[in-house]
Structure formats: C-alpha cells, structure tokens
Design a protein that fits this description.
heterodimer, A: 167 residues, 0% strand, B: alpha+beta, five-stranded mixed sheet, 19 strands, globular
C-alpha cells in the first residue's frame, strides 16, 4: 500500500530526490546563476500549494517539472534580448582528464544546443539530461509524442551539422 | 558519427554543463519559509496593493492597468524593462467541467520598445505560460501577435505564425470557444474584434467558423462557476478576515477549505451562493495570525460528471495576513 504524503512530506521527499537535478536542468534552459534556482524554488512552492489536487508523487514531480519549464520560458521572454535563450557555454579550458579535442566537441555541442529553437532545446535537455521518456517529455512540454520525436530529430540533426562544420 | 555516438556526446556535454550549477545547500529551508506563496515575489509589484478589487471586477477593465518602470525583466544584468500589469485569461486544462470558462490571472509583462501593453499581454497569453500550470491558452505554439489597435469600436488583432489555426488541435468545442474568448478578453475591453492571421482574416478557428468579426461573449457566458473574489490571490489583508466567494453551482453550495502556509487544514465549511445565476457569499474566517494562507473553494454536491462527480470548479487564493 502506498503511503499518502501530505503537502509538507511531498515537498521534503521530492526536494531531496529531484531539486538538484531540476536546478541543473533549469540552468541548461536559462543559463547558470541564481535565476535557475529561483524558478525551481517557485515551482516547489506552487507544488506544495497544489498538493491536494496532485496527491501522488509522480503527479507532483510532473507538475514541478512543467512549472519549471513554464517559468524558464517566461524568464527568457522577460529578458527580451536577442540572445536571451542561449545557455552559457562552458569555458574552453581542457581539464587534465580530457583532451582538447573532446572539450572542443563539447563546446560545439553546447553552442549548437544554445542556438536551437526553444522547443528543440527543451526536448534535448529533457531527453538527454533528465533521461525522460517520450511520453514524459510530451507531458512536460504540453505537446504530442510525435512532436517530441520530430523536435528531437531536428535538434540532433542541427547539432550534427554544427559538429561537422566545426571539424 | 553514428546516431548513438552523437546521442552519447550530447548527453555527456549536457551533463558536464549542468554540473557547473551547484544548488544552494539551504534551499529547502528557503522554500519552506515561502510555502503558501504561489508566485515569485518579483512578480508582485504595487499592483498587488489594489488586487482586492477582485477578479470579477478585473474582467471588466482593459488588460492594461498600469505601466511602470520597475525593472520587471528577470535578467539580473539586463537593462530595466518597461513593464505593464495586465490581466490575462486562460482556460483550465485539468477540469473538464470547467471547459468553456476562462480564468483571469494577473501578470506583469515586459513591454518592448514601440509596442503597447495590450500587445505584450496578448503575446504573454499566446505563449501560454500561465502562472498556474493547470491553466493554458489553448492556442498552439508558434503564434504571435504583431499589432493590436482599436478604432471605430472594433479591435484589430494581427497574428502571425506557422500553426494551422483552422484545425481543432485536439480542442473540444467548448475548449475551442474558451480559447477564442480567452484571447479576446486578454486583447482588450472592446466587444468586437477583427482578427487576421498571416495578413488574412481569421474566419475559421479551431474547427469552427468564427466570422470576420469575432464577438466577445458576455461575461456570464465565460465566467468561472466558482471564484474567490476576496482575498484576491496575492493580496495582503488584515485580521479578522472575511472572504467573498462567488458561485453559480448546483443548489448554490460552495465548499471551502482554509489551510495555513504549510498546508495544514485549519477549518472548512460551505456557503450558499446561487444556482442558475451568480451570487456572492461571505465567509468569516475570523482572527488569523500573521502569515500566509490558502483558501480553496469548489462545488461539492455533486461536482460535474466529467470531473468524476466528486468536486469541481476548484479555485484557490493564497493571501497574506499582515
């Protein structure tokens, strides 16, 4: 039998299990800095408030995820500048463990993802950072599974093209 | 590079980049201290001081309320943006019984240079990012507004985009109606609208004919069956607290629940409003200590069959007692 959480318990449990990964996901969407953390906290606060209607951990997590994405979009729109939705690219400093070539590839990929249309970028982040299924991505973004496939395919093709140009 | 190799590279790059963000260790405490707050504090400006005017009243005013320079842009490094406090109208995605109704929500939107606040409001609406994730615009993504002008009693709204707006896009007839009305209510105070899409009159919308001139339905035809008029969501009030709920439900019975900022049930009850029309009812919440509270109201006996008959038309308001 599944134990029913109250709102406080849900907040605590979902926070410990998912807060860090959601902040990192948000940072991939809006860039690094306090803003990503702020909007994830907003989403957790909203989830707590709505817990009576959510009631289940899976529903609560889906709600938080969707709320983070909505708030990330809103934050990007509020910036109102041309390069508003490009995540920062990691500094081009090769670490001891990786070759300069690997670092270049990573930088090229992040630049390419940063230049993608918003929806494609969201799909790639949810798919390859959070490892969500197509149906979970569809739910989080409010689109159909077919659209998830096409956005992922187009996004990856664009990343591939960038990589090939950079070589 | 093979497909699976490309995927592995993308996964690796995203993880490495994400790892640069280290969440603050005391974030849970920060969230707990804010529990009961539904919107980011930055969205609250002086506008909230007059929020007690109520949602029904908000429906009758134009989308533009105040234009101010409060640096509403959320980029910490960007230039201060001119912002406007507006009322947007959304459809409820989660309660089938609420289809056909539109729900006002206050937003602070950036107003680009050279654009009007109403245009900014419509674009915020079309982007569909309601503060409450249960709400949505109902419009497909990829549609933006380029102009909103009013002359001779007609508001002209120019939209552009790539989406096919003639198709139902999965909307039921009631949802399509609500999505159309939500746009018109967001776009301004006038009653008659001429909407163009990619420079052509938008005559067919979401599977139905809307005609050259679209007409805003009377508020009673789109008004939520249950609303919390006061305290308005985000309001700050003094104790003792009297709430006002508006209802048009079976036998007029609206149930309500009051919880504190931590979600603990404090008290509950019901009030009699009206059926077949709307009537306000007062709820004496008594003396409340300083803090945040959430009042939830809904129709309980019976709820809409489409919602399982348990309860429906659920709305809530989070407010602060000074």
């Amino acid at each position: 039998m599944v134990e029913r959480w109250d709102a406080d318990e849900a907040l605590t449990q979902l926070y410990h299990a998912h807060y860090a990964s959601l902040v990192r996901m948000a940072s991939l969407l809006v860039g690094h800095g306090g803003e990503a953390e702020e909007l994830v906290q907003d989403a957790f606060v909203a989830m707590h408030r709505r817990w009576r209607r959510l009631a289940e951990p899976a529903t609560g997590l889906a709600y938080v995820r969707q709320a983070v994405i909505n708030r990330a979009r809103s934050a990007l729109r509020h910036r109102g500048v041309v390069d508003r939705n490009r995540p920062e690219v990691a500094p081009d400093i090769p670490s001891a463990e990786e070759s300069a070539a690997a670092n270049e590839t990573r930088t090229a990929i992040l630049t390419a993802i940063g230049n993608l249309p918003q929806r494609q970028r969201e799909v790639l982040v949810l798919r390859y950072y959070l490892d969500l299924s197509e149906s979970d991505i569809a739910d989080a973004l409010g689109i159909g599974p077919g659209s998830v496939k096409s956005h992922a395919s187009r996004g990856l093709s664009a990343v591939r093209a960038t990589l090939e140009r950079s070589r | 590079m093979r497909h699976d190799e490309l995927e592995a590279e993308v996964r690796s790059a995203l993880r490495a980049d994400a790892a640069r963000s280290e969440p603050a260790p005391d974030a849970l405490r920060a969230i707990r201290s804010r529990v009961g707050v539904s919107r980011a504090p930055r969205r609250r400006g002086p506008f909230w001081a007059v929020a007690a005017a109520g949602l029904a009243a908000a429906a009758t005013i134009t989308a533009v309320v105040v234009v101010s320079n409060h640096g509403g842009g959320s980029s910490p490094t960007g230039p201060p943006a001119k912002t406007a406090n507006v009322v947007l109208y959304f459809v409820d995605q989660t309660q089938p019984g609420a289809a056909g109704r539109i729900f006002p929500e206050r937003h602070q939107v950036p107003v680009p240079s050279g654009a009007g606040a109403r245009l900014a409001a419509v674009n915020e609406f079309l982007a569909g990012d309601a503060a409450d994730p249960d709400y949505a615009s109902g419009w497909p993504s990829g549609v933006t507004a380029t102009a909103v002008t009013t002359a001779g009693g007609t508001t002209r709204l120019s939209l552009t985009g790539t989406a096919d707006l003639t198709r139902a896009n999965g909307l039921s007839r009631e949802q399509a109606f609500a999505a159309q009305q939500a746009l018109l209510y967001t776009a301004g105070a006038g009653r008659q609208f001429a909407v163009s899409y990619n420079a052509k009159p938008l005559i067919k919308l979401f599977g139905g004919l809307v005609g050259t001139y679209q007409v805003k339905s009377p508020w009673r035809d789109v008004r939520p069956y249950v609303q919390i008029i006061a305290p308005a969501d985000g309001a700050s009030v003094s104790s003792p607290v009297t709430a006002t709920v508006s209802g048009n439900v079976f036998e007029g019975n609206v149930s309500w629940v009051l919880k504190d900022g931590r979600g603990k049930l404090l008290t509950r009850g019901y009030v009699t409003t009206a059926s077949m029309s709307w009537r306000d009812a007062s709820i004496d919440l008594g003396h409340l200590a300083t803090g945040r509270y959430t009042l939830t109201a809904f129709a309980a006996n019976p709820g809409h069959p489409a919602d399982g008959g348990r309860y429906s038309y659920l709305v809530d308001s989070t407010f602060r007692v000074r």
